[in-house]
Structure formats: structure tokens, C-alpha cells
Design a protein that fits this description.
Blueprint lengths: L8 H27 L4 H12 L4 H9 L8 H22 L2 H5 L1 H21 L8 H11 L4 H11 L4 H30 L4 H31 L6 H18 L4 H13 L4 H25 L3 H35 L2 H10 L5 H12 L5 H28 L1
Helix pairs in contact: 1-2, 1-13, 2-13, 4-12, 4-13, 4-16, 6-7, 6-9, 6-14, 7-9, 7-16, 8-9, 9-10, 9-15, 10-12, 11-12, 14-15, 14-17, 15-17, 16-17
Length: 397
């Protein structure tokens, strides 16, 4: 049986040219949005939305009668590779230190800050026209705070104090909580475990499996990596990354969850500084591909009025749920009303992990295009609204 032929060299060249143009526009807009305090990710998403095949890119394709701005399998592969390295770099950069440093209040704030918006989305799923499986995936995507946005905001404001420690550690931990929730959501979707007993079994399996793999990885991987010569450390890190991905995929986990664990486990290795420098260099070239492609996959036409209303409900649930989940624990740690509000609003921006969840769910067929577009719009607007609220809160301090 013959395999399906891929694109010709000319078609592939056109696809890569179109992707390069989208990345360029995304980078330019990213500089603009970052300058005005809305985060680089917002601009890169907008660049993809504008130049994607469902917007201006589609018009250009029609006028030139070519597939220039086209999301073929090769472009989607590069996007998937980009997000794997983005999440891997996040785990590598921050390691397990935030988990140890957060303390009880930071950990509880992270857990409830992810669980409350997740539970709200599941509770109001009928108003969003979602079934239980899809609502759990949407809730998982809307749960995590953007660690990249938080880190950048704290650095630009030169913030310090208990509220800043709470914000940084809680935003790192709630990524972990959200990834566990995603594992559970994917497990429920694949097993169709919509009964209470079925859901409990899936929750127990994925929670226990995640913890066992995480603990084993941070113990075993540094030991094995230290036995490899320094000249082979980059190659070994790729073996670790894709080895953990293969193992966890066999158990039903998403590659982005495995990439995070691989990054954290390698951060425990004494030579991790070299790996961090390598990952930063790699992401300078390939890091924005994922965000640009996510924006390009956005199709406003498929949303319609119901999709737009669903997006607005998602935004409200995400913002209210995050603040309600975080605020009590931020206050318990800081004992200061203004500082606790600042920590709570600082947790509002969503970003890379939520977008990775949305993209993975679309490509795996768990959500449709309408749901994806509504979810992507919600994630982008919660980032913008969260940054506005955070900026105002920090001026009040």
C-alpha cells in the first residue's frame, strides 16, 4: 500500500514562507503589545490571527491562487514541536524549587486558583453548550496562570516581598495542578467515564500515575544524566525528553505534560545551566511558532454569536474563579488586603499552558473548531484584562 504523498518541494517552500511571514508580523506586534504592558504572547497571537488562512492570509491565498498562508501537516508538526520545547523550557527554567519554596499557603493558593475556575466551567457547562468531557478540557485550559507573564511583570516592576513570593511560586505550582487536571480530563474523554465511579477511577489513576512518574523522574534522570559525558549532554536531554513523552503517551498522558516533567527532572542535574542556555537559544528561533499558529487556527466565522457569548461566559468564570480561589490564601500569607488583591490579580493572565491545552485538544479531536476559537479568544482576553487589573492594583500599593 502506497503512503500518501506529502507536499512538493515548491508547496513546502510556500508553506514555510507563509509561516515565516506570520512569525515576522507576530514578532512586530509582540514588541508593540509588550511595550504597552499586554505581553508579547498577545501580539504573536494577533499576528497569527491577522495573517492566518481564515483572515488576511486567506484573501492573499485567493488573490495569488497559491497556498501561501496554509496550515499543512508540516506547519502543525513544527507547532507541536515548538510547544513541547516551550513547556520543557518552563520546567527546566523553574525546576522543582517553587514547589518546595511555596509553603502551605502558596501551594493551597495554586491548587484552589486552578480548581475553582475549572469547577466553575464544569458547573455551568449547560450554558456553554458543552458536555462533561469537553467542559473538563475547557476548564483545564482556563485554569493555569501564565508563568511567563507573571515572571515578566514581577521583573519589570522590580517587585519583592511576601506577595511577590506568593505570586511567583503559586503561578508555577498551578501549572502543575492544571496539567494533572488535563490528564484527568483527557482520561475521562477517552474512557467515556461520565459516571461518578468512572470519573473517580480516572482521577485516582491519573493523579497517582502523575505523582509516581514525577517523583521517579526527578530521582532517576539526574543520576543517569550525570553518567553521560559533558559533550553529549544536549543529545542526552533529547533522549530524556522524548523518552518520557513516549512512556507517558503510552499511559494516556499528553506530550506537553511529559515535556514539563522532563524539564523539571533535568533541572535537578548539576549541568542544567548549559541546557537552559540551549533551550533559550532554540526558543529565540522556534518559540513563537506555536503562538502564531494558534492564532492562525482561530476562525471567527465558525464562532458565531453563540460562540462569542460562550467566550464571554468563559472569561467571566475564569477571572472570578481565579480571584476567588487565590485571594483567601494570599491574604493568609501576606496579612495585607492590598497585597493579597495584587497577588490575586497577578494570577489572572493566562498564557502558554492554556493555549497548549487548547491546541492539543483541537488536534486530538476532543473539541471542535467553534469551541477552540471561543477558548482561544477567552485565553487572550483574560491575559489582557488580567494585566490591566494587575497594573491598576500595583499602582494602589
Amino acid at each position: 500500500m502506497l503512503e500518501e504523498q506529502g507536499p512538493t518541494s515548491q508547496e513546502l517552500g510556500l508553506e514555510l514562507l507563509g509561516l515565516s511571514l506570520m512569525i515576522l508580523v507576530g514578532k512586530v506586534l509582540g514588541d508593540v503589545t509588550e511595550k504597552y504592558g499586554y505581553g508579547r504572547i498577545t501580539g504573536e497571537l494577533l499576528g497569527g490571527m491577522i495573517m492566518g488562512p481564515f483572515a488576511l492570509g486567506g484573501i492573499i491565498n485567493g488573490l495569488l491562487n497559491v497556498k501561501l498562508f496554509y496550515l499543512g501537516s508540516e506547519v502543525l508538526f513544527l507547532s507541536q514541536l515548538s510547544v513541547i520545547f516551550l513547556v520543557f523550557a518552563s520546567g527546566l527554567e523553574h525546576g522543582s524549587a517553587p514547589l518546595r519554596r511555596a509553603g502551605a499557603w502558596g501551594a493551597l493558593g495554586a491548587i484552589m486558583g486552578a480548581l475553582v475556575p475549572f469547577a466553575l466551567i464544569v458547573a455551568i457547562r449547560d450554558y456553554l453548550s458543552l458536555n462533561l468531557d469537553v467542559s473538563m478540557i475547557v476548564g483545564s485550559a482556563l485554569a493555569p496562570t501564565s508563568l511567563a507573564v507573571v515572571s515578566g511583570s514581577l521583573q519589570s516592576a522590580r517587585a519583592n516581598g511576601k506577595w511577590a513570593d506568593f505570586l511567583l511560586s503559586a503561578s508555577a505550582i498551578d501549572d502543575v495542578v492544571s496539567l494533572i487536571l488535563l490528564s484527568i480530563a483527557f482520561g475521562v474523554s477517552e474512557s467515556h467515564g461520565t459516571t461518578l465511579v468512572g470519573v473517580i477511577k480516572v482521577v485516582a489513576f491519573y493523579s497517582v500515575a502523575w505523582i509516581i512518574i514525577f517523583v521517579t523522574s526527578i530521582k532517576v534522570v539526574p543520576f543517569l544524566t550525570s553518567r553521560v559525558g559533558g559533550q553529549y549532554i544536549l543529545e542526552m536531554s533529547l533522549v530524556v525528553l522524548f523518552g518520557i513523552i513516549v512512556i507517558m503517551q503510552a499511559l494516556g498522558f499528553s506530550p506537553i505534560i511529559a515535556a514539563f516533567i522532563a524539564g523539571v527532572s533535568l533541572s535537578e542535574f548539576s549541568g542544567s545551566q548549559r541546557l537552559q542556555e540551549f533551550s533559550r537559544s532554540f526558543l529565540l528561533v522556534f518559540g513563537s511558532i506555536f503562538f502564531v499558529v494558534v492564532g492562525a487556527e482561530f476562525d471567527l466565522a465558525t464562532m458565531g454569536l453563540t460562540g462569542l457569548l460562550a467566550s464571554l461566559i468563559m472569561i467571566a468564570a475564569a477571572l472570578i474563579g481565579k480571584l476567588a480561589g487565590v485571594l483567601p490564601f494570599a491574604y493568609a500569607m501576606t496579612r495585607n488586603g492590598k497585597e493579597s488583591v495584587l497577588a490575586g490579580t497577578g494570577m489572572e493572565p493566562r498564557g502558554e499552558v492554556g493555549l497548549a491545552i487548547a491546541s492539543a485538544a483541537l488536534q486530538l479531536g476532543f473539541i471542535d473548531q467553534r469551541c477552540y476559537s471561543a477558548l482561544t479568544l477567552s485565553l487572550m482576553l483574560t491575559t489582557i484584562l488580567g494585566l490591566i487589573a494587575y497594573s491598576r492594583a500595583i499602582r494602589m500599593l
